[in-house]
Description:
By secondary structure, the chain is of the alpha+beta class. It has one domain. About 30% of the residues lie in helices and about 25% in strands. The chain is built from two helices and three strands, in the order βαβαβ. The chain has a three-stranded antiparallel sheet, with helices on one face.
Amino acid sequence: MAHENEVVGLVTYTGADAYPGMQAFLDFANAPCLEAFESYVGISFELSDLDMIVLTPTDATWIKGHRTIACVVYTLDGSTLTGSIRGTAR
Length: 90
């Protein structure tokens, strides 16, 4: 099935009681998302023709207990993915 992006990993933020902010989330998720990317796609992020964003809790979802950060992969050229990128080494 065609899709624009694919989740390659989930990371649960630990630490703060108060909403930590975007930079704290990005710092926390950087290494785990890079590891998840390589494990899922089969190639290091640096060598891939794919890109990745990190979806984080908002201050509104934080209050409701949301602590999950998603590592989401998409194509650099904006093209649609037509199958899973798992193990494609692209």
